Amino acid sequence: MLAHLGQQVQGSKRIHGLKSPVKLLDSTLISLCMELYDWALYTHTKGAVKLHTLLDFATFLPEYVYITDGKGADNKSAREVRVPPHCIVVADRGYCDFGLLHDWDSNNVSFVVRHKDNLLYHTVEENELPPKGHQEILKDEIIELDGNGSKEKYGKPLRRIAVLNAENNTVITLLTNNFKLAASTIAKLYKARWNIEIFFRNLKQNFHIKSFVGTSRNAVEIQIWTALITMLLLSYMKSIAQYPWHFSNLVHSLRLNTFTKINLQQWLNNPFSAAEEPYVLSMEGIP
């Protein structure tokens, strides 16, 4: 279904000057009652499952989802997520694991990750900063890792870019193995990571995966996969509709019209037009 319908869904405009496909990687936590879901380990008093998700930036649809209990660490679980070669994966600091980054680099994957504050490194070369139009770029440099464990796991040079977040007046420092893209493009890629948070919000708010019908692991996973399939179908409907639907409005309107006999495509294109008389099968002449 994803291969057939997902190609027709348009999620976002491409970032200017970028040809490689962009994948956004993150996880979200779904809390569960520990007494009922004792297999979903998280804390002593709470249970949870985690959805480790690889989102396609072009369609805003999940390309791969790996479900673990709440204790599943992001950097370890990311090894089970199939990141395709020759793409750019964007992730938060939870994925700044140099063994993981080495695996991605060895598989011809470019990465943009936010690094941790205790990073040990030395500067090899400082690149020129972009012109005045991109004053949010504070630093662009080539570095090598100094920490014993880090350097053993990733011995190649890395590119470190410091970006000013004007909204919060904070500085975000990024690591990438891409030395060709402009620093401003790298900053835009990390900013685009927020779209996966929007995806998680839409999934939880519109498909009620906080309460589950069954308590077994299989029952929970079936309900999550069903929600993801439904999200794919609704995203496809939104993309083929002529009316500019907001996703949550489309979900709510379909719920209201679930048992209404209408032409779906006509309704998607013009939901406020007068409904046509439904076709009724005549029983005359049938014994």
Descriptive account of the structure:
It is built from 9 helices and 9 strands. By secondary structure, the chain is α+β, with helices and mostly antiparallel strands. It has a 9-stranded mixed β-sheet with strand order 3-2-1-4-5-9-8-7-6, sandwiched between helices.
General form: globular
Taking the sheet with the most strands, its summary is: 9 strands, mixed
Mean pLDDT: 88
Intertermini distance: 41 Å
| Strand residue content | 15-25%
Count of alpha and pi helical runs: 9
Brief summary of the model shown:
This protein is α+β, with helices and mostly antiparallel strands. The model is unreliable at 279-283 (pLDDT under 50).
What does the secondary structure layout of this molecule look like, with pairings?
Elements: H1 2-5, E1 22-33, E2 46-56, E3 61-69, H2 74-77, E4 88-91, H3 98-106, E5 110-114, E6 121-126, E7 137-145, H4 148-153, E8 158-165, E9 170-176, H5 183-192, H6 194-207, H7 217-240, H8 247-256, H9 264-269
Parallel strand pairs: 1-4, 4-5
Antiparallel strand pairs: 1-2, 2-3, 5-9, 6-7, 7-8, 8-9
